Amino acid sequence: MTGQVMMVTGRQRRGGGWALSGLAWVVGLLFVLPVLWMALTSFHAEEDAAKNPPDLAAPLTLDGYRSFFDTGPWPSIANSLTASILSTALVILLAFPAAYALSIKPVKKWTDVLFFFLSTKMLPVVAGLLPIYLFAQSVGLLDNIWLLIILYTSMNLPIAVWMLRSFLAEVPVEILEAAQVDGAGLIRTLRSVVAPVVMPGIASASLICFIFSWNELLFARVLTGTVAQTAPVFLTGFVTSQGLFLAKVCAASLVVSLPVLIAGFAAQDKLVQGLSLGAVK
Amino acid sequence: MTVEAETRPGRHSAPPRSPEGTLMRRTGDWARRAPLLPALIFMILVTQLPFVVTVIVSFMNWNAYYPDERSFAGIDNFRRVLTDANTRQAIWVTILLTAAVVLISLLLGLAIALLLDRKFRGRGIVRTMMITPFLIVPVAAALLWKHALYNPEYGLFNGVLTWIFGDNAPQPDWISNQPLWSVIFALVWQWTPFMMLILLAGLQSRPLDVIEAAGIDGASQWDIFRYMTLPHLRQYLELSALLGAIYVVQNFDAVFTITSGGLGTANLPYTIYQTFYTAHDYGRASAAGVIVVIGTIIIATLALRSVSTLFKEEGR
Q1: Residues 6+ apart with CB under 8 A from B275
Q2: N or C: which end of chain A has fewer CB within 10 A?
Q3: Is B156's CB within 8 Å of A239's CB?
Q4: Is the pLDDT of residue B292 over 80?
Q5: Are B147 and A218 in contact (CB < 8 Å)?
Q6: pLDDT tens digits for range A60-77
Q7: Which of B257, B247, B251, B252 minimizes the C-alpha distance to B141?
């Protein structure tokens, strides 16, 4: 049906149709161009990458990648993976029951609870930076990946609660009742009755939480050192080196962005759902 | 708040035997609250407690270099922060940066969403291309703009100028000439896809039969846009502006990477980071933090109201 209507409106705009389609292509290309440029540069030798005007046809080489991996990025990439995956798992573990409880309205002021979660998202993280730093310092959690895992969990929990709630709102109450009649406890109800129904929501929430944790820089930079530093922190320490480094930086940026790019491309619709807190499905 | 009136008809409109009533009768209040508690307690511990400490420290004299000279400072820190030209500049930069990035991305996102709402060859590919900037890690994106695009010697922008104008081409130093706009453009590039995605989803949820009918009744494209599409999109515009603002107001990565807070681009997050990281003046950093929070609360209260209407619609 959508297609038919599109064609009707398309016909009405017959004159401008081609131009608008062309314009869409041009805009899309303009937005992706910097990324393509980054990819091309990452395969150039440093001397070619620093040419002006740019040499598009310069010979391709893996030198940029080689010198990036020579600087030993793996520990930081492993740290990023650990922090992102574990915090995402923790978020879902906490948010799923909470969203379930909120969707059956357990408390009188349940909307207030819901908005409390969202309001913590608006609290600028910098405002809590100092106490968190002092706390971590006093209990010896500085430069410990678990500190980041906990902070990323708190950072993403509100998003996940909101998203999952909007998915849970669509679970028919009859299903929950049936589970209760069958004597299923809370954990069983959640695991075998509700979870399968809201799986798409869990997937979207996980994707968004993973991306935001993977991207985070401020906490990671202040609270980690050599042991627990994450990939974005590793990237910031990269450019201080002397000499030509453009190809290496492009290679590094691309490698660090790769997990997000793959996840985002693979699940574009989930991305939209997640970004809009589940308001858009 | 209007949201109090929110009801989910599905759960209330079965008069003979309200499903929710049954659920409520069978399980105790606390049993129903229990699943909520872990998340709630976790959030209070990790986000509220530190903030309370921030408020306390903001009233103290506390410098990391003189750890033994802690004392009560009253409102000294606040006075110092608010009379400090740097902080006032930072507040102004934060407002300017957030407003510019959100507004420009929103308008661009709307225009592009309208373009992508049409059916044309390769629409999926163009959508994928549009999303790409948002999927680049923010630090990586900032590095890309700073070194691969803006760099006066070998950046792409000046390279293109050389292509077009030859050897005598102007070779501006983009970041030094327009530091704030350099940051804004890099952020607009990343956030336009975000706005576009939400607005496109909004456009595609329009009741198309009504729009078709309006078209048949002779309404012009502009009328349809002005009186049907735009009102329908309003809540999506509000949602994307709100979420965008939440993230951009806290932006640290771009300012840190592109200008290192120099040339008058230090926003509040960067300034607090710096006070804390380099000056080690805990009291002052906390006072600045409290000011940011008060500012955000004011904006957020207004914003939450609009978002609550959106979720009211959603519950229908």
Answers
A1: B281, B284, B285, B288
A2: N
A3: no
A4: no
A5: no
A6: 889 889 988 888 889 999
A7: B257
